[in-house]
Amino acid sequence: MAKRTSLKDSTCPVARSMEVIGDCWTMMIIRDAMLGARRFGEFQKSLGLAKNILAVRLKALVEDGILKLEPAADGSAYQDYVLTEKGQAVHPIMVALRQWGEDYAFKPGEPTTIMVDRKTGKQIKRLELHAADGRLLGYGDTTIVSSTA
Amino acid sequence: MAKRTSLKDSTCPVARSMEVIGDCWTMMIIRDAMLGARRFGEFQKSLGLAKNILAVRLKALVEDGILKLEPAADGSAYQDYVLTEKGQAVHPIMVALRQWGEDYAFKPGEPTTIMVDRKTGKQIKRLELHAADGRLLGYGDTTIVSSTA
DNA sequence: ACATGTGGTTGCATTATGAAACCATCCGCC
DNA sequence: GGCGGATGGTTTCATAATGCAACCACATGT
Fold it and tell me: Chain B contact for A101, CB < 8 A?
């Protein structure tokens, strides 16, 4: 059999995250939801993906508690897909992906989009990793241990 | 035809990042590389994935400049897969994925692994998003604009 | 009532994934 | 230098996921 391997039971949080949101379309849907998309048609038009795929992804996202269905904001009988708190919490991941993409996947001068502070309109600061005592940490300054909680 | 859709030319950095590292196994390989894995066999044993899949993924990672091949550190005729600077730069994404997974994919008390400061052994601080002026930003405090650079 | 828009589902062709078998080197040992 | 096992893959073949297109039910506008 060639069933896609599941990492749901891994003890590594990264694996479990990837199991849920480690899919191109899934992440693009969340991105669009963060930018304000709410309706099936909005996602479909924005992403240009096949409707059956979109339907499957949206269903999975709702099941995983990242999106939830609620009555359409425009008063129609349709429903809106809106991010839950769990879905909104994906924001830092999105920012990290965005910054890496900006750094390594664009030629200088190539048109792109940037994330700005809504209040000032200025580009946001880069994500930084800090130790508990506030020291700036780089790659190599961290390691993984199994939690003894 | 049912070729997997490519997002390589999207103007959204998130899309381009996902195109490269938005794959479960790919991210797991990078994770293991960050934890010190260097050899084909190490990745294969740690991840338990089929060797053909691993071979394809490793080749892609080398082509994308995330891993590079260098003579084995143990002096043998084999080669090591080691992270490039671009590969090391994935670290913040890994941390963001890890924190989200910790928060939403584990029951309290469930065994997991945590990331610690190598010097102090203490758990690292959560990633925070800041504005250019230092203000802490939450979900909803940011927006996307097309770069006019 | 009728056309159109929205939000899907179904069918079928193509592609990717995965387990197992196979194969070419490389290494340690005698 | 010859032999056995370890290493690092490639090949084969079955199954699962993806994607296009066609279809469909219901809501809405006129």
Answer: yes
